[in-house]
Write a structure and sequence with these properties.
single chain; alpha+beta; 4 helices
Length: 214
């Protein structure tokens, strides 16, 4: 059995009266999955209710935006391959998905007043909540529904499995991007109070149904 970990997605959310952009990146590595202690040392924190303290003041980055929120999710899996007659198949035997908030890559401008930050936080939270909902969808995928890799050797089968997992994550990222952009458009980036309230209520219902909590 070999151990694989991969950054499934790093999503950059440009919020507070601004456009939304999604950036997906991938990296593979062998070894055991990290702990939250290790992740927090890198500035990655579990999903939680956002506060003003989560946003370091930095006027030098993302100059066109008042606030910048970045969430993430990535997966780690163990797989086993078998070979018969020159045809190998790699299957995932167990896996998990980690998701949360990238504090070190999130920021707000120094000129934002405290009350402006507080008014913006519900909209920011909605973006992170949506990210968590899509992360949970990936995490809830049963083993039998995950891709299998095939090839002429175990190595080829493993590589094929990695490509298929990346493609699966790409599809999820694209679907999430559509919803994130619709969220921004319908709420006018949080400026439309009535629409924001409606979206917040709907997202909270979805979180409850998915069993997601802080």
């Amino acid at each position: 059995m070999r151990h694989f970990s991969a950054i499934d997605k790093v999503i950059r959310l440009f919020i507070s009266g601004c456009a939304l952009s999604v950036l997906a990146t991938y990296a593979g590595a062998l070894g055991n999955p990290p702990s939250w202690t290790e992740e927090m040392a890198k500035g990655r924190f579990p999903y939680h209710r956002l506060t003003a303290a989560d946003f370091p003041i930095n006027d030098a980055v993302h100059k066109e935006y008042a606030m910048h929120t970045e969430g993430f999710f990535w997966y780690h899996y163990n797989e086993r391959w078998t070979e018969n007659g020159g045809h190998a198949i790699a299957r995932i035997t167990d896996w998990n998905v980690w998701s949360g908030f990238e504090r070190d890559k999130s920021s707000r401008k120094s000129w934002l007043r405290k009350d402006q930050v507080e008014r913006t936080l519900p909209h920011e939270q909605g973006h992170l909540d949506i990210n968590e909902l899509f992360s949970k969808r990936l995490a809830d995928t049963p083993l039998e529904k995950l891709p299998t890799g095939e090839g002429n050797s175990g190595k080829e089968a493993e590589a094929d499995l990695a490509r298929k997992m990346k493609a699966k994550a790409d599809r999820l990222a694209a679907e999430e991007k559509v919803e994130q952009e619709r969220y921004d458009a319908e709420t006018n980036h949080g400026a439309n109070a009535a629409k924001q309230q409606a979206w917040t209520a709907a997202i909270q219902t979805r979180l409850q149904h998915a069993g997601i909590h802080y």
